[in-house]
Each structure stands twice: as structure tokens, then as C-alpha cells.
Amino acid sequence: MKNNLHVFLGATVADAAARPLHWVYNQKKLLTYVKGKKDFTFLKKNRSPFYNIKTGKVSGYNEVGQVMFKTLVEGHENIEERFKKNITKNFGPGSIYWKNLNLRAKYRKVKDWRGIIKGPWIHQNIIETVKNIKAKKKITGGTKVNESDGYCAALPYFLYDYDTSSLKKIISTVTVSKISLKYALAKFHLIDLALKGAKDPINEFLKKFKRNSYFKGVVDDIKKVKRLKSKPHPIIVKKLGMACSYPGTFNSSVHSIINSSTYKGAILRTIKAGGCNCSRVNFIGAYFAALKGVESIPKSWIKKTDVAQKILNQK
Hints:
Strand content: under 5%
Oligomer: single chain
Distance between the termini: 5 Å
């Protein structure tokens, strides 16, 4: 596909596949939802305890990538400024995302308001970004959380034009957290190695950056995860991080990658571990699509993903 967009397709399909089980932190409860199913992707019944959207749609993580993708399809001039405008239009005042944010504020007075939100869920980084764009701040990225929104936003841009300094700018549009930036760049290096034909991008990354001071923490993390390779994935995810934050979301993703040989196997393994599976599969799906090609993404899953055709049309 044009500009290696099969990698973005891999992330998008994986996100939609995991979405009905997004943010289920009770692993025992999750097992009851998938019991007896070999393929528990695209569940018809929403099981996310926080929000409910139609099966086939993507989470807020992948949605910010779709906004960047739309920005790039429209043209390649003034990408950053147009991306900010599109973020405001898609997530800001007047959008369903913003409406639901206001509902969340209202429902906080209720003892257990989870599950009340009908429609998509806006993430902390995007809330801050919209407010900063509206306030005409030069640097618009969120500061409060260390999460995957920056990576998700920059993935289509990375596939169109890989340039580290401009990539950092795009990530910083959505998050200025140093941890988020570092782990996003590590993900892009791993995807880049996969696209360039490395048989084992994880080990290639370790070799390439073993003496690199910037990625020292990432290298140490990967080594730690490799030592835990033989342990059951759900147990390790609980130990390394079920939530959306780095470094846990990265480390849990690496554990799934090193224990999987196929795109499908890796996504199923990740979903079954629970927690913020959508943030993890946006990386894992992209990684395996880069490593194994577009054919590795199950065709039946592509058909079930609402926005997949828009990506496929960019041939």
C-alpha cells in the first residue's frame, strides 16, 4: 500500500477488534466475556465499563490517528496547523467527544457513573490539547499524563514522511510529556526496523541502542520484559502495567510481541489480558503489519472495521 499505510491499517483494525473489551480491568470478569470463544474480537455486546460505541468503530486512541490521516489526505502543506484545526473540529466543542466530557463532569456526582456514557470517550491529552489550541498556545500538547495519544497521532505522519525532528513536533502537538515522547520514538524505531526487513526488530533495537543514553531506560525495560518471556501474559500485564501509561503500556506490548508469531495471535493475546488493550494494540497491530505485511491482517477483521476502507482507498 501507498506510504506503507498497511501499518496504519494494522493499528486501526486491531483497535476496532479490541474496542468492545476496552478498559476491562477485572481479568476474571473478562474471562467470562470471552469464555468458549476462539475469536473474541469485535464482540457485538459492549463490555467496556466506561463508554459504549458501536462495534466496528475505533477508540479515542486510534481516532486521533484518523484525524492525522484525514489531514494528510487533504494535503501536505501546513500539516501541523491543519492538524490542530481538525483536532478541534473532531474532539472539541460541538463534537460528541466534548459533549460526553461535559456529561462525565455531571455524572461524577453519582456514586458509580461508569457505563453511563453513550458514545466515544475523550482522553486527557486530547482535552488539554483542545484547550491549549483554543488558548492559542504555541505548544499545545498535554502535560498531565504519560500515554499513547502522541504515538497514535503521529503514526500516519511517520509513514508518510519519516523525519525525527518533525515527528517530535507532531507528537508534541498532542503530548509534551518526555516519557510519552521517548516511548513513542522507540515504537517508531521498532516499526521502522520491521519495515526495513529486520527479522527480529526487538533484538535489533537492543543492538542499535545499547550505548544510547536517551533510550537507556527503554533498553533496560525490554531486557526486563525478555527475562519474563516465559510467564503467562495476563499475569505479566498485571505486573508490568494494565493501564494506559508508559512505561507499562509499552512493556506489556513488548511481552505480547515476543510471545507471538502472528498478527492475529498477538492481538488476541493482548485483548485477553485486559486493561487498556486499545493503547497496546495500536502499537502491536502496527508492528506486526510492518513485520509480516498487509496479508497478515485477517480479511474478516478488516471488513468489520468501519474506517478500514478509507485507508484501503489510498492505494
